[in-house]
Amino acid sequence: GRVKMSAEEILVCAVKLGKNSCLYFDEFCCIFPAELECDALCKEMTLHRVLRNVNSQLLVVRPDLNMAAFEDVTDQEMQSGKGMLFSMHCYKTTTPLAGMPVAFSVQVEDKSYYMCCERECGETIVRFKEGEVPKEIPGESNIIFFKKTFTSSCSKAFKFEYSMERGMFLAFEEEGYLRKLILKRLSKDEVDETMKMSL
């Protein structure tokens, strides 16, 4: 609610006390996040978005095939529960320069899956596992990506850096007719369109 004080309006926010007495703002109340110090990552809001690549294709998760790929989807086909509408969970950070820490989950039929990365045969693979994203993450996590603007001149598009392997970003790779979601290293000063995503 609002509190009137000598003709000035002050916005009062709901706050929650998480586990470990970690204070964070409820949902979309993140007006003064810099004043809240917290070592663990605490979820502060969730946005519902589709992820589009540079070809305007939508990211679709298919757990039965253990895969996610960018596909041509019409607006009519875009439905919650079909593996296209992502929840982007934004966490509070004390190091904003790295980018906003986010985790992704998606509904497929009546199950929730979260995006994570795992080492397999010497390379890091993007996986979707059944389960919910935690409200708090102590320290490092293989589900956290740093959301950054794609380039300084292109602030409406983003790239997502894997928090546990800096320099590795979500991207797509053409495999036959598929554009599969992968992690890819960005070489310095390069602009890689396969990493460009709009929300």
Automatic annotation (TrEMBL):
Protein name (database record): Interleukin-18
UniProt keyword Cytoplasm, yes or no: yes
Keywords: Cytokine, Cytoplasm, Secreted
GO molecular function annotation: cytokine activity
GO cellular component, one term: cytoplasm
Pfam family, one: IL1
Subcellular compartments: Cytoplasm; Secreted
SUPFAM superfamilies xrefs: Cytokine
Naturally occurring in which organism (per UniProt): Notiomystis cincta
